[in-house]
Amino acid sequence: PKFASLFSLILSISYNLNKARVQFCNREAATGPMKLFVSEGNPHCLKVLAALEVTGVHCGVQYISHEEKVVPFLSRPSFPALLLPSGQHLFSSNAICRYFFEVNGQESNDVSNQWLEWETIVLQPVLHQALHMAVVQGKGSEVSRVLQSPLNFLDQSLSKGSMPHLTGESVSVADVILWAALYPVLSDSSLFVRAWFDHLAAMHSCQSAAQKVLQGKAMKNYMQKQSVPQSFQCRDTQPSNSSPAEEGERAVSEEEMEAATLTWRKGLTSCSLATERQHPLLPEEGKRNILLTSALPYVNNVPHLGNIIGCVLSADVFSRYGRLRGWNLLFVCGTDEYGTATENKAREEGLTPQQICDKYHAVHSSIYKWFQIDFDFFGRTTTEKQTEIAQDIFWRLHKNGFLVEDTVEQLRCENCQRFLADRFVEGTCPHCSYPEARGDQCDKCGRLINAVELREPQCKVCRQTPIIRSSKHLFLDLPKLERQLEQWLEKSTSTGDWTANAKQITRSWIRDGLKPRCITRDLQWGTPVPHPDFKEKVFYVWFDAPIGYLSITASYTNEWDKWWKNPQQVELYNFMAKDNVPFHSVVFPCSLLGAQDNYTLVNHLVATEYLNYEDTKFSKSRGVGVFGDMAKDTGIPSDVWRFYLLYVRPEGQDSAFSWADMALKNNSELLNNLGNFINRAGMFVTKFFEGCVPEMDLQREEKKLLAVVGWELQQYIQLMDKVRIRDALKHILNISRHGNQYIQVNEPWKKIKGGESDRRRAGTVTGVSVNIACLLSVMLFPYMPLVSQTIRDQLNAPQSCIGTMLQGTGTFVCALSAGHRIGTVSPLFQKLETDQIEALKKRFGGQQKPAQSSVSAPAAPGAEVKVVGGVDPEKAEQLTKAVAEQGEKVRALKAQKAEKDVIAAEVSKLLELKKHLALAEGKNAAPAPQTGKKKK
Amino acid sequence: MGGASTFQPITLVSDWRSSPSVTNMALRELASLEKYLGLRKPNKYSTQGDKKTPVLQNNAAPPLLGLVTIACHLVKEAKRPELLGDSAESRAVVQQWLEYRVTKVDNCSKEDIKIILKDLNLYLHDRVFLAGNRFTVADVLMYYGLHPLIVDLTVQEKEQFTNVSRWFDHIQHHPGVRHHLPPVAVLRNRIYTSRHH
């Protein structure tokens, strides 16, 4: 068949089992050719290939597509399959393995039978679920939780026996089957069945078998075609919202219960965190000093939710968490303000670049403030410090010989007296002859274009034909720094927490070979190049912008170099979306390495994937998606926005924002799970115990619960330490699920009406529950700071609980002891109703702007994001103002006798604004004949 | 938790749930198998975990867990190794159907039933027993496992899966096998000759 890459390989005997090989030539092997059918990516096929190699049985192997039927009597394709010499088919992977071993003289016994049965009945269903999570859903972190119980069992069995293998001294069929079954999930984890697992993995036969079927994406392809594991089917595809009853198959040992009880009794420690930060924060001896940056948002636009989750929100959660952990942490960020895009925007809005920056810097600040992003300092790149530091780095690179000169051909508009950045040129596409191709890309055929290749190029501003001019530029000599870079990368990626995508993108950049990169531009709006031969030029943004981290820190404190030239004491975390990775992992480190001034280089590079909007992309021009400034207009609290964005944080894979899902998560997780538990716990104290925490007499059930909650807390801390923000959130929700179940089972509302011992029981359940609520408030703090504080206010919790709970590996102590008086309890969350959500979905679903204004036309300041379905008085008012301002400007230019084209450009802007005003006022504006406008 | 006795480790959750006590089918099967094999001294059994996995208690050796594992052990104990297959091939086939019984037949869904019967019907088209021409323990356990499915079939359905019905009837009349199960009536002659009923 066409898809089967037919190659039947005769396997060499790769592993000697200390068994006489003669035996495999038994009578059956002689009667007919045996053939093993496997399909790529199918984890079960690994078992049989490994068994085949280990036993050295001679058998042809054929690779076949998943969809093909081999076993004649089975109605569904089933792999692996073995055609026996007699012409019969075996379709069970374990039976095939047994057969190979038996042919090789090793018959199975009771012990191996038992392992095989355990594998099929207990391990496989769990494994199927785990693989589905890891491979299809990309939730690798859940795997260890799901597999905990069977792995514990395996581990205990291995540790009890004195033998290195499952059934004795040598490798048996059980070892191979279990090894192969666990291979996909264990090969990159650090679990304790390790010694046994590694031993088998080191066997050449096992390795080569794994390479044959499970390489690359094969398993993902296979898994995606498999049925969804049963325990999944009723669930959402988003991170699990199942109850612990389904997933908490975790055994709690006596030791764990005792340890948890001891911790609980410790109570609050007196050492409390300094709640007030003393600015300026500087590195301190003996502390973990963390410098944390989030990618500088570009100033010329309003950030959308994807931007927010990708950098500032993720960094904020981690910095809040770090402060709770007692780290000495500085979180800086700011707006990236230089560059073509700003000049462009300034032209569009009829403002100066500086005015644009001022305006949008304020927009960004207020959005982040609303999202409660707690920067230590939020600065900007258009400062004196930026010039000073960028020029210093430049001169150092120059002095050290890492800059090279070259000439570049560029389009220059003689009329406007300037070189044209790619976005300022339009012309006919050299590939498809589309007449309105941009200088960097053709919108019709999508090909990338070098601006000088455009046919009939036009300056976008004045419509004159630009000329090709060569211009001298400076390049950073990346190839010369490559070795140094690689050495540093090797160390940083192996010791720090780099996300997988960050490592992978970096690797591919290095693999493709580094080329010199131009660091200068013929623009005005930028940091001036100080070299006399390159006057009139500015630094290219990619060189300039990351230096913003340093200059922004310098704007915060004069002692900025204690952070930035101190790699011995400081750990640097960079947060960003994946598109920004190469600049932070390759280009900027090269600048700093070449400058040779003992700079602090990134230790942990945390990159998110993309967040889509209802399965499409956020698009400003199409009005699709929610932008930062609109979130507050929805009436949904900032904390709920934060929660949902973090819940769907594109961690490990792209994810999507969906209104319906947001409502679902709000109603199921926040309202019914978390809020419900905390509220019930508090209400019981208020209603049944006059607002005072009752005596708690811990029974076995409580001790178990403490151990379970303690374990979830530990997981939370482990994940957070590794910046697995989304995964850690699940453990908070697990705790409240455990709590709800605990209350549900014990029914304190009934017991309180019972006899003395029942009432005591009600007291214990209430007291333990309200203490769990207190723990939850601390764990929630990084995610939902306001809700977190509200809970502690309602419980009147001592401030010291914040510092205590997240110490070490997590310490769940009794923070509210018997007799503690709580405050007034009230509900924390509100339901999101379907019609409310439908309305929001409609509002942000792409019809935000009428067709006319969705053209990339100049919009009035601040008005572009408003809904314009017909008459919009608010917008009209803003536009009236903008028209007046623009009119002023045109008059001023005329008075100054400015250049004709500059005036013409401003006049066209004014006309455009007037047209928009007419629309907003409900008048029917005749479409102005605009030659310079792009069609959509 | 004690070692090999934790086939399904005891979980916090299972403590919180109250699982209704049902008569354990697997234990009844094992008792019937013991009788069929003519084992004089009945073994001691218990069950474990949510799934009520059977456990064979043994004074001399560690306990054995799992229906198939115990069944194979009993066959060996009765010194009837031919019931596990008389060649490497047939032993693999027997193990395969034993596995099929506990993974596919047990706890199968309504749609699965049809597929199982259809596949088996095709498989048994040219076979007397599951492992070819000899009766094995695979036939016994598959018979026990399929019994609740076959009982619910209508006469037409039984006709549709004629090979399965023939095999099933054959096994239930095999001396000493049926024991704890009621006989199922299987008509050997077709009543319905076309499918539109």
Automatic annotation (TrEMBL), chain A:
Source species of the chain: Nothobranchius furzeri
Keyword rRNA processing set for record: no
Composition bias, Polar residues: 228-244
Annotated segments matching region Disordered: 228-255
PROSITE patterns given in the database record: AA_TRNA_LIGASE_I, GST_CTER, WHEP_TRS_1, WHEP_TRS_2
Superkingdom per UniProt: Eukaryota
Gene: MARS1
Protein's name according to its UniProt entry: Methionine--tRNA ligase, cytoplasmic
Domain WHEP-TRS: from-to ranges: 875-931
Keywords: Aminoacyl-tRNA synthetase, ATP-binding, Cytoplasm, Ligase, Nucleotide-binding, Protein biosynthesis, RNA-binding
Catalytic activity of the protein: tRNA(Met) + L-methionine + ATP = L-methionyl-tRNA(Met) + AMP + diphosphate
Family: Belongs to the class-I aminoacyl-tRNA synthetase family.
Molecular functions per Gene Ontology: ATP binding; methionine-tRNA ligase activity; RNA binding
Compartment(s) of residence: Cytoplasm
InterPro entries according to UniProt: aa-tRNA-synth_I_CS, Anticodon_Met, Glutathione-S-Trfase_C-like, Glutathione-S-Trfase_C_sf, MARS_N, Met-tRNA_ligase_1, Met-tRNA_synth, Methionyl/Leucyl_tRNA_Synth
Gene Ontology BP, a term: methionyl-tRNA aminoacylation
Enzyme class: ligase
Domain GST C-terminal: 105-231
Enzyme Commission no: 6.1.1.10
Pfam families: Anticodon_3, GST_N_5, tRNA-synt_1g, WHEP-TRS
NCBIfam families in alphabetical order: metG, PRK00133.1
Gene Ontology cellular component terms for the protein in this record: aminoacyl-tRNA synthetase multienzyme complex; cytosol
Automatic annotation (TrEMBL), chain B:
Source superkingdom: Eukaryota
One GO-annotated biological process of the protein: positive regulation of DNA damage response, signal transduction by p53 class mediator
UniProt cross-references to InterPro entries, sorted A to Z: AIMP3/p18_C (IPR053837), Arc1-like_N (IPR053836), EEF1E1 (IPR042450), Glutathione-S-Trfase_C-like (IPR010987), Glutathione-S-Trfase_C_sf (IPR036282)
Residue span, GST C-terminal domain: 73-195
GO CC, alphabetical: aminoacyl-tRNA synthetase multienzyme complex; cytoplasm; nucleus
Protein name per UniProt: Eukaryotic translation elongation factor 1 epsilon 1
